Structures are given as C-alpha cells and as structure tokens.
Amino acid sequence: MARPVFGLRTRLLAALLLSSAVTLAVAALALLSPLEHRLRADGEATVFSAVAASRAELGDIGVNRATGLPDYNELAGAISLLRRRAGGAQVSVLDRRLATIYAPANQDLNVPDYYAQVRQALASHRGVHTLIGDELVVAEPMRIGDGGAVYGVVLVRRLQYVSSAVAVVRSAFIDAAAAGLAIALVLGIALTTTLLRRLERLRDAARELMQRGLDASLPLDRHRDEIGDLTRAFAGMQSRLRHQEQARKAFVATASHELRTPLASLDGTLELLEDDLSTARLDLDDARERTRRAREQSRRLSHLATDLLDLSRLEADVQVRREPVELGELCRAVAAEFERRAHEKRVELDVLAAPSPAWADCDPGAAARIVRILLDNAIDVAPGGSSIRMQPSTDGACAQTTVSDSGPGVPEQERARIFERFQRGSTTGARSGFGLGLAIGRELAVRMGGTLELLHTPENEKGARFVLRLPAARAGEST
Ligand SMILES: Nc1ncnc2c1ncn2[C@@H]1O[C@H](COP(=O)(O)OP(=O)(O)OP(=O)(O)O)[C@@H](O)[C@H]1O
Ligand SMILES: [Mg+2]
C-alpha cells in the first residue's frame, strides 16, 4: 500500500520542527531585546553616576582671579577622572555663551550639534540626555570652582559595544537554533521511524488476523510505552477471542452430542414400536415399557432444550429485571413446586424462618430458577427420610439463602468443576442430567450482581450446602 503524502511521519516531523522553530524564535525575542535594553541602561547609569560622583570635585577646583576661569590643570585632572568613571566618555566643558573652555584632545565625535542641549540644560538647571544612534549625549549644568560659574558639561559615550554584544549573542543564538533544529530533525526521524515500524508491524498483524483468523501470530513488543501496551492489549484480545472460540466450539460439539444421544434412543424405541405394530405381534407390556422410555427421552430432550435456551439467553446478554423479592417467600413457592417429587422420595423440604424478611434486589424469575436448580439437585441426592433445608437471611448489604441436604456431598476435587458447563460430578443421584444446572445458576446470579457458591460442610455434618447471595433491596424498595 502506498504511503500517504501527509502520513504520520510527515505530520510528526512538521509539528516537531515547527514547535522547535517557534520555541527558538520566542526565546530569541525574549532574550535579545531585553539584553540590548539592559546593556544600554547599564551604560547610561555609568555616565549618570560618574556625573554625580564628580560634582563635588569639580566644585572644589581653584578659580583664576584674573580670568575668572577654573584652574586649567585642576580642571583637566578632574575631567580625566570623570572620563574614567564614565566608561571612557569624551567630556567637553562650555560656558554660558557656549564657548568651549575644555575639549578633549582627540575630539572625533560625530555629534551634529550638542549646543542646543547645553543651552537647554543651562537654562533649565537640569541635565539633558539624548541617544543619537549609538551615542549617548549627556549635558549637565555643573558649578566648576569654589564660588565659580555654572558651566555646561557634555559627556558623549559611545554605546556601540551594546550592538556588538547583541550581534554576538544573536549569531550564537542562530548557530544554536540551527544545531537544535538539526538535532530535532535527526531525533524526530529516528523516533518516527521506530514508532512507525512498530505500528506497521501491528497493522500487518491485524491484516493477518483478518485473513488467517484467530490463529495468526502476533508480534511481540516488550517496550513499556503506549504502542507496547496496545500490542499487548491486542494480543490479550486475540487470546481471549481464541479462548471464547474454543469454548464455543466445545459447547456446540457437546450440545449436539447431548441432543443426538436422546434423539437416537427415542428414534430406536419408536422404530421398534412401529415394527411391533406393523407385524401385529404387539406385546402390550413391551409396548408400555417402550412408550415409557420414549417419554423419558422426550422429557430429557425438553429439559436440555430449556437449559440450552437459558444459556443462549445468557449469551445474548438478555437484561435481568431488578425488583424487591423476599427470598423466604420465593423459597416457599419453589418448595411447593417440588412437593410431589419430594414426597415420592420421602424427603422433607424445610424453609426455615428468617429473623427478618430477606429482601433481595433481583429478577424474581431468575432467582426462582436458581433455587429450583439447587432444589432439583438436592432432591436427586438426598437419602429417603432426610430433609432439605432452605435458610433465607440478610445482613443489610446482601440477602441470601442456603440450600443444604444430607446427601453424599461434593468431593473436594470436584468443587470447582461442577459449576462448569456440561460437567457432572460423581455424585449425581439416579437422575440423568447434562451438567448445565449449576453453570446456568451461577451465570444468572452473577448477572444479578450476586454469587452462587458451594460452602464447606462442617466436619460433623454430611451433605452439600449451596448459598445464593444477592444484593439486598434498599429499605424503601422493600415496603
Ligand atoms: N446437592 C448436591 N450434592 C452432591 N452433588 C451435587 C449436588 N448438586 C450438584 N452436585 C454435583 O454437581 C454436578 C453438576 O450439577 P448440575 O446441576 O450443574 O448438573 P446436573 O444436575 O448433573 O445436570 P442438570 O442440572 O443439567 O440436569 C452434579 O452432576 C453433581 O455431581
Ligand atoms: Mg442439576
């Protein structure tokens, strides 16, 4: 199959590159502009603090009485100190008429006109500063000499180091960004290649599963990440489905076998009867016996049909009803149905009175079906003259009923198996069955949020004791 143009790889790589590029661009904007601003601010602060520091020294300079001008040597010394403090700024001094009384030796300033600033500073008695290109020009009115006049002191500081520092950082940033993007690209390609390879393996496995069925082999992925989890979940689903498919096949095979046996027997009996009738050599006793056997087989078939119908309903996920059901009453009703059979077997059915009504929140039909299954088994195995006890009770959270008999009990090794479909134990009593009763009962109990279990019989007692537990109905519901 052709690879899509905008496949996962292209989209992942594009997203990776885009997010890296945007991150770097935002980082550059966030870094470079404040850096430039900060360096300029630092440069300006140096000049302003130098002016403040030199103000007193300039005020102390001696004044030539004849000319009224500050002593030149002292002025040159103070200005050279001011220049050093101001980070190498060039310093000039102008008087009120804007005549230069001090200028740096190598005046190479490219300042178009700072006279206007000096004039403004002297007129307003306040410092004036401007930034012209890379040059900071500060004009300060300062008194020079003890009792001397106020002059305009001009400091010009080149801040071109700010732009060069920013340029260096910018180019380092571009290099780092290029390297970062290249690494992101390489890592992205490597990562998407492995991820896609693993996804493709999974896709191929799914296709194989589609073509070859559940026996197709799935890839092993031991990575502890989402794709690994997906592969393992996929393998789990396959094994679950395989298991269900096996169980379904086994069920169909067993069910059809169970159906065929009574049908074949019924067919044989009816054939013999037909033969007898056609030859007119009918022995009435024989015919009666054959009809009895035929009816037995047909009852067996109808019993199996009911069980299979129950199972198919359970498999079709038919919803169970929920309503308050009093288990004592339910047990008495079911016991009444078995009265005749129990009487024939000389077995007594006792429904013990519960200390308080045992209200369960369940489907009355399903709950009665479970009690019927338990009672049916118990009557089968109970010895003549014994009694079968049904004991409903409740503990608030759950309502339950136990069904105990005095039969042979269930051997330890069969305790789990008897709840499986088509599994009969060794203590089955005289009646024939299919091993479906308890399987249906347990499934129904679970559907209603309850359980069906075989309890351990106390050492000094014999027989089997089953318990059906169901969620208790809330107080308001049971009234
Ligand atoms: N009260 C009991 N005492 C001793 N063994 C029991 C009792 N109830 C069930 N069993 C054992 O559990 C097995 C499974 O019971 P289950 O009701 O599922 O099937 P069955 O009675 O054999 O057949 P079916 O109920 O389908 O007619 C029985 O064959 C029997 O060996
Ligand atoms: Mg049974």
Summarize the topology.
Elements: H1 8-59, H2 72-85, E1 90-94, E2 100-102, H3 115-124, E3 128-132, E4 135-143, E5 150-158, H4 160-212, H5 226-279, H6 284-315, E6 323-326, H7 327-337, H8 339-344, E7 348-351, E8 359-362, H9 364-381, E9 387-394, E10 398-404, H10 437-447, E11 451-455, E12 465-471
Parallel strand pairs: 7-9
Antiparallel strand pairs: 1-2, 1-5, 3-4, 4-5, 6-8, 9-10, 10-12, 11-12
Helix pairs in contact: 1-2, 1-4, 5-6, 6-10, 7-9, 9-10
Bound molecules: adenosine-5'-triphosphate and magnesium ion.
Provide the CATH top-level class of the largest domain: Alpha Beta
- Spatially, the strands of the biggest sheet line up as 2-1-5-4-3
Shape: rod-shaped
Largest sheet: 5 strands, antiparallel
> What ions, cofactors and ligands are bound?
adenosine-5'-triphosphate, magnesium ion
Q: What would you report as the Rg, rounded to the nearest angstrom?
A: 52 Å
CATH superfamily of the largest domain: PAS domain
Q: What's the end-to-end separation, in Å?
A: 67 Å
Number of helices: 10
Helix content: 40-55%
Plain-language structure description:
- The chain is an alpha+beta fold.
- The chain has 3 domains: about 10-165, Beta-Lactamase (2-Layer Sandwich); about 225-315, Orthogonal Bundle (Helix Hairpins), CATH 1.10.287.130; about 325-470, Heat Shock Protein 90.
- About 55% of the residues lie in helices and about 15% in strands.
- The strands form 3 sheets. Strands 2-1-5-4-3 form a 5-stranded antiparallel beta sheet, with helices on both faces. Strands 7-9-10-12-11 form a 5-stranded mixed beta sheet. A two-stranded antiparallel ribbon has the order 6-8.
- β3 and β4 form a beta hairpin.
- α5 runs antiparallel to α6 (about 285-315) and α6 packs parallel to α10.
- The protein is rod-shaped, with a radius of gyration of 52 Å.
- The protein starts with 7 loop residues before the first helix and ends in an 8-residue tail after the last strand.
- The mean pLDDT is about 90.
- The protein binds adenosine-5'-triphosphate and magnesium ion.
